[in-house]
Structures are given as C-alpha cells and as structure tokens.
Task: inverse folding
C-alpha cells in the first residue's frame, strides 16, 4: 500500500483531500505545519494556528488517520519572512505564497514526509497533475489548472520542479469548491462550513503594513501626483530596427522625479507601498481615487496618478532575468533567440492574457498583446499553453 502524507491545514480542502486518498486505498498520515510563533514579530492578538491545528486533529480522528504537528517556523522565518522584508526594503513586492509552496510545502515538508517513509505528499490545492510517457520510458509531469476555474491555484505552484511534482498528489483538482464542501458535509467533517483563510500563507489575520512596520521603520516622505499627460509612457515611440530594442523600450521601468508632478501629501515610508495600490494613501480632494504608479525607496517618494486608467499604471512588456527563469517543463525551455506564443498572468486570479515569450541571452521578455496594469517588480509571471502551466519567473 502506497503511503501519502497530507498537509492538513485545518481547512476544508485538505480535509477532503485526506478523505479522498483514504477512499482510494492509500495509507494516509495527516501532518499540520506550525509555521509561525516568533514573538519578536507579533502576528496578531488571535492565534489562528491553534484553532487550525485543533480542527486538523479532529478531522484526522474522524477519518481514523495518524496525525502529528511539525514546527517549521525557523525555516519560515529564514526562507519566507526575511525574504519579504528584504524585498519590500528594496521597493519590490514579493509573493510569499509562491515562495511558501516552493520552499516550505514542497521542500522542507516534502523531506519530512519522505523521512516518514511516504511515497507522496498531498495538498488541498485546486490544480491537477498530468503524466506524459516519453519514448525512452521516463515520465514528464505536467502542472495543470484546477477544473474549478474560480479556484484554480496553479499560479501559486508556478515554481515547482519535475522532482517535486513526481512526489505530489492533488486529490481535489478535478472538483469544484461546492463539490468539496458537499463531500465534507456528507462526511460530517468539522471543516465543512469553515471559511477560507484570507491571510498570507503564514501571517494569518494581521494587516501587511502593520507587519512590515515591525521591521521596516517608518520614514516620512512626499506623495507626488503625476498628471496623466505627464506620464512617462506618453513619450513618442521611436522607430525600432530590431525586436529586442523594441522589447527593451516597452519593458523599461519609468524613472519619475519630483518635478514631474505636485506634492499632494505625506507617507510613512515608500517601502510600505506597491504599484497599483490605492488604499493607505490618505489623500482626499481628487476627482478620481489616487493609485500608486511608482515608488522610489532610495529617495523615499511615492508617485501617484488619478484613476484606474492612468497611463503610468500600464506597461506592455516585462523582463525576467536569466537566473530567475523557471521551467516546470524543462523539455520546453527556450533557447536564445527563440520565441513562444503563450497565455500569461502576473497575479493570482487574473484572466490569462495573450503574450509572446522572447528569449535573449541574459533573460526572457514577456510581451503582452494588451498593456497590463501594475506590472510589479518581485511578483511572479506565469505562462501557460491551454491549461498547462509551463514556467514562471520573477519580474525584474
């Protein structure tokens, strides 16, 4: 009998994943990851992990499977939390959920499962795994979108490797959320009606600015409003003699200066803000809401523009450095000067967008058919063909 360790989070998705695996004849072990209890960075007055671990234990008892808790908080602090602070300090916007899957759930957690003699780990992610048999008998694994398009979580797994996929099962990938809740209710699981967690993968219920302020000190600076007519993207587009020059032009991050706009307020630190952000500016009296169009952490200035359609929010092309390119399907990796038509997204739940990948010697351009709002350094771009996620990279 094959042995599977399920990451029981105390939510409905992982509960049903464990139930389905048991029904399929696997020997199932439930493992709860305790990811955070560092008192030097307070998370919140509440202690959500205690409630979650208790629910996970009750589910394991109901299903009649062994259960234990593992403390991964030291690895979390080192690989996720410290990384977040570093990125925000540099004026970038990290995605801890993607990193959490790559570094914790499918690395540290996977290794613990293997030490317990498991053949696989399983999670409650809404995605699927495909298997292709190669001519030499070896197998190539595919990361496929979940059947429930509203809940597809393949984006969060965009950094997984073939090795990680080979050891992973996604039991609920063929189901919709309502079907998952139905199964949980039928089995009388305590998590059947439990709300989905809204926090980041480890922070729980705290608001991000409050969390960041515990390590990144407040620092007063100016909020500048840039009129849409003054946007750096209103410049005349030059004539291009080759494709790379054109891509380089459209991928270039604008450099605003104080003279590009007027002072409309004060902020507590440019490193607390991210491109496309609307909340937290506390500037009134504008016809349309202000959005952050650029941050300058070196000068501690935030540049804003009125309205969702401000041209400063939009860019057509982004760049991923060579060291940050990751192929879930390494057999499809592009060589220098090759291109590939794909669908891509730059954030979770974004509709897939038509784009072309262009590989150059030191990286990869992702050139979208339509301009994208708030392309943000530090976030991940993921590219697909049909419902298969082929690869991803960190936006430069």
Result:
């Amino acid at each position: 009998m094959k042995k599977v360790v399920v990451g029981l989070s105390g939510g409905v998705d992982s509960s049903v994943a464990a139930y389905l695996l048991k029904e399929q004849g696997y020997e199932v072990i439930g493992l709860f990851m305790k990811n955070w209890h560092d008192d030097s960075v307070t998370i919140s007055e509440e202690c959500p992990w205690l409630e979650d671990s208790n629910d996970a234990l009750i589910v394991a008892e109901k299903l009649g499977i062994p259960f234990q808790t593992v403390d991964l908080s030291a690895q979390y602090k080192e690989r996720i939390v410290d990384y977040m602070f570093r990125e925000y300090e540099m004026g970038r916007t990290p995605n801890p959920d993607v990193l959490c899957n790559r570094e914790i759930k499918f690395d540290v957690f996977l290794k613990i499962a293997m030490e317990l003699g498991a053949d696989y780990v399983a999670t409650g992610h809404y995605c699927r795994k495909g298997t292709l048999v190669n001519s030499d008998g070896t197998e190539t694994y595919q990361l496929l979108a979940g059947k429930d398009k509203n809940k597809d979580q393949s984006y969060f797994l965009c950094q997984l490797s073939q090795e990680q996929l080979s050891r992973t099962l996604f039991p609920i990938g063929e189901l919709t959320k309502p079907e998952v809740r139905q199964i949980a209710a039928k089995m009388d699981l305590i998590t059947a009606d439990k709300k989905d967690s809204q926090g980041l993968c480890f922070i729980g219920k705290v608001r991000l600015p409050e969390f960041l302020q515990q390590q990144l000190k407040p620092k007063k600076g100016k909020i500048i409003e840039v009129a849409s007519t003054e946007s750096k993207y209103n410049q005349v587009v030059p004539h291009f003699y080759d494709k790379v020059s054109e891509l380089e032009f459209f991928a270039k991050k604008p450099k605003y200066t104080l003279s590009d706009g007027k002072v409309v307020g004060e902020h507590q630190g440019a490193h607390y803000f991210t491109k496309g952000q609307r909340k937290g500016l506390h500037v009134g009296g504008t016809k349309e809401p202000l959005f952050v169009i650029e941050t300058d952490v070196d000068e501690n200035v935030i540049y804003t523009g009125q309205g969702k359609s401000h041209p400063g929010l939009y860019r057509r092309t982004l760049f991923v450095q060579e060291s940050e390119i990751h192929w879930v399907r390494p057999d499809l990796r592009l060589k220098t000067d090759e291109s590939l038509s794909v669908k891509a997204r730059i954030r979770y739940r974004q509709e897939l967008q038509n784009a072309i990948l262009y590989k150059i010697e030191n990286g990869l351009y992702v050139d979208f058919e339509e301009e994208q709002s708030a392309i943000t350094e530090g976030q991940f771009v993921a590219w697909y063909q049909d419902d298969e996620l082929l690869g991803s990279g960190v936006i430069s």
